[in-house]
UniProtKB/TrEMBL annotation:
This is HTH luxR-type domain-containing protein. PROSITE patterns: HTH_LUXR_2. It comes from Myceligenerans pegani. Signal peptide: none annotated. InterPro entries: AAA+_ATPase, P-loop_NTPase, Sig_transdc_resp-reg_C-effctor, Tscrpt_reg_LuxR_C, WH-like_DNA-bd_sf. Transmembrane segments: none annotated. SUPFAM superfamilies: C-terminal effector domain of the bipartite response regulators, P-loop containing nucleoside triphosphate hydrolases. Residues 703-768 form the HTH luxR-type domain. CDD domains: LuxR_C_like (cd06170). It holds the Pfam family GerE.
Length: 776
């Protein structure tokens, strides 16, 4: 647009040709650029220039005027009368810029006519901009500049389509639309408008257009005129082969090669194909669709139900998938699809892919265990395959029964399978989840980081990779990373926003970053969502409430999580520590459920830094007598790095409450301030609000005792401060220096467990001392 706008101000009177296929946005781009010149630059837009009666109007005018200009070749003077007709019909104004819109394909004859028009414009110090679909081959005049509008990329088309349709579109659908439309916005909009909402959001499979619309016919009408029958047959066979294969496999490969055919060189000359390395590729796929329509080629055979089921599973086309799988995991055909159904069910938190105990052969996963971890297991030896089968059975037991029969064996099998090549991200997501539930946060982090650059096929694997990273980040307290990974999931599959795992993680990240209070409780939809998914949702939302200082709300949610699921991805020890933390903070330790204390650290196994920190915090919160102080000192040491920021801040807040309850207000303030500083450095403003709430509550609990411990002169200063006196006024009243007043008030704040005069006023309102109303 800067190039177009610069035409009007150039000293050198050059002509600009804006070239691009129909629908590529030439008119919109030129008009937007020329409007930016302002009302002082008269811009004339001319349309139907090749007709007997073209018409024109100045930008900003509502009335259109016909121009009596002879069409090219109609007489010996091709452009005679153009500007004369302009001045006669449009009020005598001479334009500064003439925009010749929709000039079509500029043949040599048309280009010559425009050259005469440019010569006439030069005499009037007028510039000319022409929008054309294509230029005739040959040498162009020196004073002619050509600006070719390239195709839009997927992010730009996504923005354009979202604005045009008012609907969030799945990112892989945008990529497919971008390929089929060759980045042409008008063609992309025509394709998108033919899709259902489910297809646009990724809930239903879309392999590509069966027919080309009117916009495609206009855009490629000239190209089709130059394609002979053998070339049209080649293009038609390609698009039929491509749409047929896309139904049976994910990811769909829009860049599939064309093979080798003598006609490809001729198609390259027409701009329809290009050679990349040693492979030919199609540049304008809709031309192939038009050729297929013209040749009336037969459509490929419909894919089998097994192939279609695999495509729906890999593509996470949930709107089509749910009705198919509600009959149970055995309703899908083939061992690969059984494995896909199970791993996708774990990913989404739904129950349709989880075989239930008691069904004949339902729990025997040996036939599909290999497919749960590897794309192909041909090179996997016997012991590793046995470990993979045990690992699949353990994952199945956690989902179906909520039990881990042998944690030590599970850890060993995770180590064995995790080191093998050729894994896919649905299996890696399962391994990440199981490592986290065993408390091996560092192992889960290493697993995600070690495979983040691996090949990812299909929407399900993309989502699995992002959710794995989000869960690890949530356990470690990296809530900005949680939000970033969840945003990637939503861009790819907007329809997954209702999944419990996304709702829970979103609530936790929003609470930490923005201080947003969760607005949802535990859903009563266990028939659709697994008990494990509902319990993890409750644990995430409960942790969000605890983070904000809402202990009573956190207790009920965390108790539900502990009762419903013994093995959440956060690790039961971590959930138990948060539950005890919330109960102690709410003064409701007696209501702790039995399930909160029945998972020992040894059972979880790997003593990672986060697990040790959570276990030490839980033990300290429940300790009695003199042993509590030593337990808390140990908990604070255990929560320092390499433990995550989440465990350290939670321990500091619990420690601050404990020391405040003992009357050690100064130590409590230091603990709260350290936690607050860490949260601020991490950009977690919401967490600082929860720390403030905990500090205020702790200060009020011991304030009544601390008020009585103030000396007479300190009480006098406090009374004056509460009445609004400045430090200088207080100094005059008690006959000391202002510096002394500042130092003594600071000592008072430290003993009361507060920070400044605002906290002093708030504390006096919430827990007023008996002597505060006495006269000075």
């Amino acid at each position: 647009m800067r190039t177009i706008a610069g035409v009007a101000s150039e000293i050198d009177p050059r002509t600009l040709m804006v070239v691009g296929p129909s629908g590529s946005g030439k008119t919109a781009t030129v008009m937007h650029a020329l409007r930016g010149l302002g009302p002082d630059v008269p811009v004339l837009r001319v349309q139907r220039i090749w007709s007997r009666r073209p018409h024109a109007r100045f930008l900003g005018d509502t009335e259109r005027s016909d121009l009596t200009v002879a069409a090219p070749g109609a007489d010996g003077r091709p452009t005679t009368g153009f500007f004369e007709s302009v001045t006669q019909n449009l009020g005598g104004t001479v334009p500064r810029v003439v925009f010749v819109d929709d000039a079509g394909v500029l043949t040599e004859e048309r280009l010559s006519w425009l050259q005469h028009l440019v010569d006439e414009a030069f005499a009037l110090d007028c510039r000319v901009v022409v929008a054309a679909e294509e230029l005739a081959p040959g040498t162009l005049p020196d004073e002619l500049d050509v600006l070719r509008l390239g195709p839009l990329d997927a992010p730009a088309l996504r923005h354009f389509l979202t604005d045009a349709l008012g609907l969030a579109i799945a990112s892989d659908v945008v990529e497919r639309i971008t390929w089929w439309s060759a980045g042409n916005p008008r063609l992309a909009l025509e394709l998108a408008q033919d899709l259902s909402v489910a297809q646009l959001r990724g809930g239903a499979l879309w392999h590509g257009p069966d027919t080309a619309g009117s916009a495609a016919q206009r855009t490629y009408r000239h190209a089709l005129e130059t394609v002979d029958e053998p070339e049209a047959d080649l293009l038609a066979s390609f698009v039929l082969r491509q749409t047929g294969s896309s139904l049976g496999e994910e990811p769909w490969d829009g860049a599939a090669g064309l093979g080798d055919d003598p006609s490809l060189n001729r198609l390259a000359e027409l701009g329809l194909t290009e050679l990349r390395g040693e492979t030919w590729f199609l540049r304008h796929p809709l031309v192939a669709v038009l050729c297929a329509e013209r040749r009336r080629a037969e459509r490929p055979a419909a894919p089998t139900s097994e192939r279609r089921g695999e495509a729906m599973l890999r593509g996470l086309h949930m709107q089509e998938l749910n009705p198919v799988l509600r009959a149970g995991p055995l309703s899908v055909e083939g061992p690969k699809n059984r494995a896909l159904a199970f791993t996708v069910s774990v990913l989404t938190g739904q129950t349709w892919g989880i075989p239930r105990p008691g069904l004949a052969g339902a729990v025997d996963c040996r036939e599909w265990a290999d497919h749960a971890w590897w794309r192909g297991s041909a090179g996997v030896d016997g012991p590793v395959r046995e470990a993979a089968r045990r690992l699949a059975a353990a994952a199945l037991a956690v989902e179906a029964e909520g039990v881990v029969h042998d944690p030590d064996q599970l850890r060993a099998d995770l180590d064995t399978v995790g080191e093998t090549p050729g894994q896919h991200w649905l299996g890696l997501h399962l391994q990440t989840r199981m490592r986290l539930m065993l408390g091996d946060v560092s192992g889960a982090r290493a697993l995600v980081a070690g495979h983040v650059d691996d090949d990812v096929q299909g929407a399900a694997e993309h989502v699995a990779r992002s959710l794995s990273a989000a869960m690890v980040a949530a356990v470690e307290g990296q809530f900005h990373d949680v939000r970033r990974h969840l945003d990637a999931v939503r861009r790819l599959r907007p329809g997954c926003d209702g999944w419990l795992v996304l709702r829970g993680l979103t609530a936790l990240a929003d609470a930490a970053i923005d201080g947003r209070v969760p607005d949802a409780g535990v859903p009563d939809v266990l028939g659709t969502w697994s008990a494990r998914a509902a319990a993890e949702f409750a644990a995430d939302v409960g942790a969000a409430h605890l983070l904000l200082g809402r202990a009573r709300e956190a207790v009920s949610l965390l108790a539900v999580s502990a009762e419903q699921c013994r093995w959440p991805y956060q690790c039961p020890v971590m959930v138990r520590a948060d539950l005890v933390d919330a109960a102690v903070s709410a003064g409701d330790v007696q209501s702790l459920p039995a399930a909160a204390g029945d998972t020992a650290v040894d059972e979880c196994g790997v003593l990672s830094a986060d697990l040790r920190a959570a276990a030490a915090r839980g033990a300290a919160l429940l300790a009695d007598g003199d042993g509590a102080l030593a337990a808390f000192d140990e908990a604070v040491r255990a929560s320092t790095p390499p433990a995550s920021i989440r465990q350290h801040v939670r321990t500091l807040v619990a420690y601050g409450r404990f020391r405040a309850a003992r009357g050690d207000a100064g130590v409590a303030v230091a603990a709260f301030d350290r936690g607050r500083t860490l949260a601020q450095l991490a950009g977690l403003a919401g967490w600082t609000r929860g720390i403030d709430t905990a500090q205020t509550a702790s200060g009020g609990a011991v304030a009544s005792n601390r008020w009585e411990g103030l000396r007479r002169e300190e009480r006098t200063m406090v009374r004056l401060a509460l009445k609004g006196a400045t430090n200088s006024k207080i100094a005059e009243s008690v006959f000391v220096s202002e510096r002394t007043v500042v130092n003594r008030l600071r000592q008072v704040y430290q003993r009361l467990g507060i920070r400044d005069r605002r906290d002093l006023i708030r504390l006096a309102e919430e827990c007023p001392p008996r002597w505060a109303a006495a006269e000075v």
